[in-house]
# Entry
Amino acid sequence: MMQTSTSRHFFEDFPPPDDLKHTIRDAEAFVKLNSVKNKNVVLITSGGTAVPMESRTVRFIDNFSTGTRGAASTEYFLAAGYAVIFLHRARSAKPFVRHFPEEKLLDLFVLKEAEGNDTSASAITVKQDESTRLARVLRSYHSASSTNSLLSIPFFSLQDYLYFLKSISDVLGQLRQKSMFLLAAAVSDFYIPSDEMPEHKMQSSEGPPEVRLSSVPKMLPVLIHRWAPEAFIISFKLETDPKLLLLKARKALDTYQHEVVVANILEERRKKVVVITADSETQLEISEEQRGSGQELEDILVQDLVAKHEAFIQSAAGR
Ligand code: PAZ
# Structure
């Protein structure tokens, strides 16, 4: 039997992450700095959430999300002039470095040994055919870091993610229409309440555990109506059954009354999304050929969302 709880109960059930105060201070400074520069600021959530099965966690329930959507969108929002708070699952894809997968990283370089045995005189260079790509990524990375346009905040568990989301929303919501939320993280719908979780590692000698999951309270309506009521909010809807996708995405928009739902099917998510607003439904797609030449769906998606955000700001200014 599944149980439900309110957002307040959920937060009362778990302690905040150790670095919450520090993270809030960083977010406040970041938002202040970028609002002085008159920049729009977007919070991008990215990756899956780990649901602990023991309080001193050895095992956890996880999901498929790689964090590519969030990491790629971060780069395109930075290129569009936004400041970005990148709230991401630790060890999922990250902007810029994602272009250089760990297992191939060393293949980027050439080592030229010096004459004799003097290893300190050996030289390392970037392979000729990789240097253009590396230079392009480095340029964007340096531009983001030298202008303080990117704040990266890692999390691991579902609980930590929700604490960070709430605290950052309180800060970012103060920018009103100039703030945007791109909620691309794949957040667990289920968790184990603290009083049902064993403290220590479950022992296999005791046989398979009976795990009772509760429903995570819906945080989206709380974010939309309480934490950041004037912000431009984009949620994502993922399904595996194409028959359900648009119905459920439209239902989420009608129920929560925010600005955009981006709908995608698990296996097609790199090639196609549908952007749904109160009065439009736009399919954005890229071909295999475009993907082969290095283009990404997030490039088109971010352009579309930036235009919608601009119209939202204009319309609020005209009221
Ligand atoms: O992280 P990723 O790039 O592998 O996948 C992106 C995604 C499918 C997690 C995202 O587009 C999305 O739909 N997020 C919300 C998922 C949900 O309905 O909970």
